[in-house]
Structures
1.
Amino acid sequence: MSDLKAIIKEKLGNGIDAFLCLKSEEGSVMPVLIADENSPDLEKVVAGDCRYPLAGIIAALLREYPSKRFAVMVRGCDERALIELCKLEQVDLERVVMVGLACTPEEARACGCARPYPREVALGEKVEASPSREVIEKLESLPEKERLEWWKGQFRRCVKCYGCRNICPMCFCKDCALEDPHLVEPGVIPPEFPAFHVIRALDMAGRCIDCGLCEEACPVGILLRSLYRKMQEIVEQKLGYLPGVNPQDRNPLTFLD
Amino acid sequence: MVKEEAKNTEEVRILAFLCNWCSYAGADLAGVSRLQYPANVLDVRVMCTGTISPYFVVKAFQEGVDGVLIAACHIGDCHYLKGNYMTAKRFQVLREALKFLGLEEERLRLEYVSAAEGEKYAEVMRSFTDEVKALGPSPLRKRAPVKGVGA
């Protein structure tokens, strides 16, 4: 990734204190923060064929270093996450420079998000993709009882690892409702339906940016993304809001306008 | 067929969240006016319907209630100016979400009842209880209700 290397050098020379991207080391791709032009990590930077919640890492970095400026390599999903986190006052976009990376056609197809590229693309070629509504459509065609059984069957597999919440770039609360003993009884596995998963789904309404990391992280393969995508559709239909797209739009579930 | 009939006559339990300033006073008026309405409802008085987290509704369904009613002030009449605007927005999202998960959407209802509408309160309780009775016990109910409770 010589292009990426050149961009990192350019940014570090232009008032950016550190650059967050991915590196490949001994066959593993992992996030790396490069603060020095002569860093040996510079030779290892890659676009990466796997993803990390970089927006969440940036939020943590901004909190940790209140006077520093950062640049970050963003895919479409990372950019949406940063925009939405800015609206939720978790990220100060004045201190973040985004370097856009478009997903390759293979990545875009495998992931299936609606916009696999950021607004400004610096690396890669923009490709269009269409998200699959297969699971949602199948469920909507079922009668209510069967739909309930289908979801119960999905959530019965849950091992309550909190992986979906921990990986989610949009989850940042210090006190999580999923750990509130009044809402979710501690020590009960699988967690009772519907509280655990529906509470998370409701929190994702007007917030989920459809990065799909939750479903990737889930060790038992619960089709979480279909649920959160449906929440996104509901908020769009009922309240006319799509998270992470327009920095000027305000979240109707957070603000009264 | 017999089973269906038995289901429909079983007592249902309804949880009603009532706003302190309008709907609770409306319920009070229904009471002092001696209006008849079914006793299946258990009410929870809240300062404003805007304080009702959707989590509470989800939790109520998990605990096995058959229907949840949220009774708010009329739009524009909120004691805290815009609390019920938020309720109205959240309600739409919550109702659709529950529907997608396979719970009948009729089990969740939002009504606007003012302090002067005792008759409306009784009517809402009658119609909502009938509706929930027609649907039968919630599929999320864990155990059979204890006879005589809430009935």
2.
Amino acid sequence: MAWEYIGDILRLTVLGGLGAAGILTVLLWKKNLATKVTFLRLVVQAVAFTALFYVFSLKLPLLYFFIFIFAITLFLGRFYCGWLCPFGFVMDIEVMLRKALGIRYRILPERFNGILHKLRYVIVAVFLALPIVLWFLQPPQNLNFADAMAKLLAGPFRPYTALIDPLIPVVVPWTSNAVNVAHINFTYPYVQDIIFWAGQNIGVAIALVFIGLTLASSFVFRRFWCRFCPTGVSLAVVNRFKGFKWAPLLHIEKDEEKCTKCGVCKRVCPAQVTEVYEQKGGKINTSMCMLCLRCVEMCPYAETLKVNIGNKTVFKSRNWLEPPKVE
Amino acid sequence: MKNEKVEKKYIPEIPAKEIDELKSTIQASSEKIMAENIERMKKTDPNRPQAMKYFDEISNLFGQRQRELAAEKEKGKKIIGYMCLFAPTELILAADAIPVRVNSGWYDTSKIGDRVVPVEVCPVIRSTIGAKMIGLSPFLEQSDALISVLTCDGMTKLGEILSDYKTIWEMNIPRVKDAPHSLRFWDDEIINMKKQLEQFTGNKITRKSLKAAIEQSQKATRVFRRLQDLRKGSPVIMGRDAMLVNQAYLWDDKERWTEKASALCDELEKRAERKDWVCPPDTPRVLVTGTPMFWPDSWKVPNLVEEADPKGIIVADELCSGERILNDPVGVDEWTMDDMLNAIGERYLMASTCPCFTSSDGNEDRINWLLNKVKESNVQGVIYYVTRGCMLYAMEYTRVKKALDKINVPMYYLDTEYTREDVGQMKTRVEAFLEMLTARADM
């Protein structure tokens, strides 16, 4: 018993400490707005990664988690994908590894990227339709309506939880379906589902192929998974509702006259978003943007790209040839 | 090096005696003009920044820099001339060669160029051909190879004509820059140029050397932007002085230029703090755009504007011999060779506002660039400078005029030639325009 209490205290301390670190970093960032967004993002990702681990160890139902994401997505868009998603963090670590090896990324053809873009909607539709289809194929017996709904939502089909699978940290505190190596439980998005559907033996093989493929592809192409991630689409769609115009939404805005169309924003984008480059000015309208803000950071013309929350500018491009002014 | 004995495709035979005569007369008069230009600049601003002394010296085309280049050449360094801003200077620097721009601003040599091409051709081209025929330009003479970028009609043929004398590397530039295949094509040209430079100089362009070259250029851009930012406020430096500083980058040693221009900025910043203005802050602020103005003879228009009565001050320009030289940095994402090369390609092709580009919505970048400059620098009037024969700039005039009309900024079309004869009537025209600007400001 005592050990469990100590464990809980430890966890809370670490969580609190990490939270404080996060706040401190944000404060530091506010004072020194334009330095190294990419670096800051990695810090936030690491903090979020650890924090998510503890959230899972508290056994919070995933539904609450989903509501939380939904809520921040309303205002911030796919901020979650760029800054908090653990799977995204894994891919960014791969990028660091690739950079260290001096290998350059490959670029997907724009058309193929567009197809992947649309594929997201198909995947989501399949996820949502699958349980209902199965329901009709095998109508459950002896269940009243409430039980049936509960089974539909939380049962083995996991329609909504499967959608947010990439948000599960790669290391999890619990043991079900995770691989235990040296007392650390490793998991991976969708592996649980694959093993569930395909059975232990063949499922593990398929899961390994899946893991290998996704890791290799995101080593070669930057943020490959994000281009057709079903979670991404669920988040992006929410942000697109026109009914939320009153809310302090986050947008990237472009100043047409200051832009020389030098194309840096297009080249540095890890998701190969072209809208920032192609749109003439105003609010950038795309559901592919993960708000990693690399384009804003790399834009060499002061105040050409701006990140606005509501009417307030929180971050803008600057003449990065000058060292930032520290107050 | 090309064998001089090879039969020349374009250039007529000129007796050596005549060449020597022409060269010595034009060089003597040119030296006089350069000294006179500097005297005039000093007269306009008696309290000229101390740091300008260096740029006055380096601007002597037959002076210090020529000797330095000769010394470098003796050590085995190659000198690569280029005739258009699209030449990737970072690659030249990375190959341990020296880039110099060789376009000519001499009025007298344009008449010699008339022997090869008709007078309808752009005088910048004619003058450059003429300068080569008599061996006037030291930088053009010292170049071991020339990069010719096929932008406007004149530039396209200039390389071919000069191939009678020098090794020429053509770079084929796409005219519609927004299409993805254009960028791919241009990237290939950049890679090809890298190979040619490596072969020619014998130095391999490594990741390290290219990174160093890019960083060097970024440093220069940083100082350049500081200088332009200083010009945005109340005037602390005359436009001609700043234009000379910018243009000196084309032939000066890049590192030294950065250092000296930085010193100039420091001095100007102090002046701005003291509110030590170079002319009354209500002097009409003028932007110059159009055909490039090359030192020394093409200093005609800047001289006229800043010595006119009422006086104007050039606070910004959109010239490929001016602010466009260093405005855009190379933005590298990951420092791999491929990424650096692509970044260089994009910086030269995409960010450029050269009128040789076109598309269905026109060369919109140039309009945006101008509108932005007009607003940022608080410009009151624009002078659209076109030399006869400069088709692309002349043809874009109406569009620019319409765009500027919308924001109620007057523009004046100033067409001229490579000649000193029209100075009198140009003076009247410029003064009338400045008069109008002053009247508008009073209203």
